[in-house]
Amino acid sequence: MTALLYTLGVLAFVLAILVSIGLHELGHLVPAKKFGAKVPQWFIGFGPTVWSRQIGETEYGVKAIPLGGYVKIVGMLPPGAEELVEETTYDEDGEPVHRVRRSNTGMFTQLISDARAAEWEYVKEHDADKLFYRLPWWQKVIVMAGGPTVNITIAFLIFLGIFATVGIKTQEAVPGQPVVDYVADCVVPASESGRECTEDDPVAPARASGIRVGDRIVSLNGTEIEEWSQLQELIRANDDGRAVIGLVRDGKPTEVTTNTTVTARPTSADDATLRQVGFLGVSPRTRIVTETGGVLFTLEQMGHMTVDTVQALGTLPLKVYDVGQAILGLEERAIDSPVSIVGGGRFAGEAASDTSVDVTDRLLFLLTLIASFNFFIGMFNFVPLLPLDGGHIAGALFEALRRGLARLFGRPDPGHVDVAKLLPVAYVVGLAMLVMGVVLILGDLIVPLHLAG
């Protein structure tokens, strides 16, 4: 039964992500068609075609490798007057076909010319008014922003449903001087949190000192304790120093002495970055606080998510490098390291098969996971670098700025922005994305993260 639930959880997550990818591509396709651009293909996946169907001028289908999707919009790259020579030939039906032959040599110019040739090889004469690069800049922005906006909208709708009904449940220490609710037996690395102690694990300082469940902590090294967060800060700042702990046990004051130990731990619930801090090994009595809200509350929470995601994107290459180090056994994998769709599927499977958790909570976790992946996909695609959607948006905005300035100063229209000149950058970024994707997939297979971690 557990294996079946695990499999169902994985399949549900993968199916949801594939549907999200398909909707992302529809987010490009629908406005592109609305604005008159030619869209010959819409596919989920890559590699050999598993199924397809022609509807109008567009072929819709599914390919064998479900690691993404694409929509083909004709004329993304404008012809380069200096680099390309256009010529007209005729196909077997007698239709005129505009072909582009290369007239330049050199590594980068040849790459650009090859891309233009592939883009323009079968553009027919009657397609001249259906080319993407000829659209007004604002239509280009709408078309390219449509995909990631769909992902963010999916995330918003899921989060709205959760926040408006179940709300955000947070666990916080009971106010006042902390009462011990749990005493750790040993010091377990944060990345392995939840596992059983082994003979190699050092005894937790709290356990060694004799602290018991139910003890109320009233002081540390002479400092009176008023709440749990204050005690946490003092313990972390104590490193491996001597700790004299004042307690109230069964209504009577007592005192124990130990040495806190240094270990890598997250420093707060909002920051999972591991730092070397002092560790005692106790947890306080807690209570569950629930906060609910509607549209404005959801937008507020997603605003916080946006800040966190932008910060995460800034450190993504470094974190992927750390995952590579973990794969080689050079360091432990951090609990806040990014995961691929493989890791997401593992989380979904583990959550679905955890029968100790209520079915409703398992479903909520799965929905939250799907929403989080959609939100990240949307935000990632807005990064202003080719080949991401944000790169094309940046190109359209630059075109608007350049043409606007030309009109303002009475200069000739500079024409369309030639994004093809940035293709070498796109190839580098694309290669980096491929490498990061492979590293994360390998990391999720070799040094996986688990929900308990």
The overall average pLDDT, rounded, is 87
The largest sheet has its strands arranged as 9-8-10-11
Order of helices and strands: HEEEEHEHEEHEEHEEEEEEHHHHHH
Name the shape in a single word. elongated
Helical percentage: 40-55%
Protein name: RIP metalloprotease
InterPro entries: PDZ_6 (IPR041489), PDZ_sf (IPR036034), Pept_M50_Zn (IPR004387), Peptidase_M50 (IPR008915)
Cofactor: Zn(2+)
Pfam family, one: Peptidase_M50
What does this structure look like?
Its main location: membrane. Keywords: Hydrolase, Membrane, Metalloprotease, Protease, Transmembrane, Transmembrane helix, Zinc. It is a multi-pass membrane protein. Belongs to the peptidase M50B family. This protein has 453 residues and is an alpha+beta fold. The protein has three domains: 199 residues, no CATH class; 42 residues, no CATH class; 118 residues, Pdz3 Domain, CATH 2.30.42. Strand 12 and strand 13 form a beta hairpin. The strands form six sheets. A four-stranded antiparallel beta sheet has the order 9-8-10-11. Strands 3-4-5 form a three-stranded antiparallel beta sheet. It contains eleven helices and 15 strands.
